[in-house]
# Entry
Amino acid sequence: MDNYSVSGCIVTYNNKRTIDETLRTIFQYTKDIDFRLYVVDNGSTDGTIEIIKENYPQIKLVETGENLGFGKGHNYILDEIDSKYHFIINPDIILCDNAIKKMARYLEDNSDVGIVSPKICFPDGRLQILGKRNPKLKYLVASRLRNDEEPGKLLCEYAMLETGLDKEMDIEVASGCFLGIRTDLFRQIGGFDDRYFMYFEDFDLSRCINKISKVRYYPEAVIYHEWGRDSKRNTKLKIIHISSMFKYFLKWAFKK
# Structure
């Protein structure tokens, strides 16, 4: 067993449909590392909490009683975690191997890296087209307008598809659906900027870390993400998405 501690956090809000498979696969592939998992529940009413309590007593479950949002939910345990490496994990992630161990070891072996991001695929194995460069309005519009066709020039540029995504490289953005970060750096920057209720907090986090360390894409670690893209269909989430976009661009407009 590696001699460093690893923690993870999942923020849940009515995730009964996916949470059991997420937790089952996480614990299946973290048996040989010093790993502690936290779940911060933002007031679920659909049975999510009951699934966790009945089946996963090893989890440190924190019930906020209200929907704090994504970043603030993760920050809720920031003062409690004492690991060397910490993982941000969505409640619709599936592991098929020891990706967490691979990523933690990568951070251990590469002291200049602050965040490590895996290759992220749909459950059927298709690559997810996720931004790896800092967001620009043209990229976001192209992403919003994309249908099921092959990604166009702008999305290819945004996701750095021209590289083939088959080798490790420095990137500007790591997706918040699953990433590993040095706990001391996460604490140093104060966690996520909780002015974002949801969306863009991962862009912001990556940008903060890139000012003091590196964000690295590491495709030897592969995880699977359902990725519902709910803000395309849900008007309330679409408004939250747009609001977060404005907050992000206003915050970083005059920063180098």
